[in-house]
Design goal:
Distance between the termini: 63 Å
Order of helices and strands: HHHEEEE
Number of helices: 3
Strand order of the largest sheet: 1-2-3-4
Shape: elongated
Structural class: alpha+beta
Radius of gyration: 27 Å
Largest sheet: 4 strands, antiparallel
């Protein structure tokens, strides 16, 4: 069996002299796959890793926009006004730390607690 260095050199020599760093990296991946006997992960479109990250990020943004139908997280506002609605979220003062959703058997602090309530889902979160 050939050594790692021999396999790597054979793959690097197969490249043209003006090969890009991405092409050289791909040759190293192919050499590693040949040497280890493991299959190489294919990139059918032939995109470099930076382009794949951009495509993945755009897909994530589209999915997250559709998933929450606009509700998402409460807005980040410096001085929200209690009772005011910001998008799907209402800022309010709750009478205790249960945020309006007490659970049986739990003990909550009886203090005024600022928080957010989602108008559509009824979800509450601490401010």
């Amino acid at each position: 069996m050939a050594t790692w260095k021999e396999v790597w050199r054979r793959h690097q020599r197969a490249l043209p002299r003006n090969a890009t760093p991405q092409e050289r990296g791909r040759a190293t991946q192919l050499a590693a796959a040949e040497y280890s006997g493991r299959p190489v992960r294919r990139n059918p479109a032939g995109f470099d890793p930076f382009t794949l990250a951009l495509i993945g990020g755009a897909a994530w943004l589209a999915w997250s926009a559709l998933k929450g139908a606009g509700s998402g997280d409460p807005p980040k506002i410096d001085n929200p006004v209690p009772g005011q609605v910001y998008g799907d979220w209402e800022y309010r003062m709750f009478s205790n730390s249960s945020l309006g959703n007490p659970q049986p058997g739990m003990v909550y602090l009886q203090v005024v607690t600022p928080g957010w309530r989602n108008i559509k889902t009824g979800e509450t979160r601490k401010a």
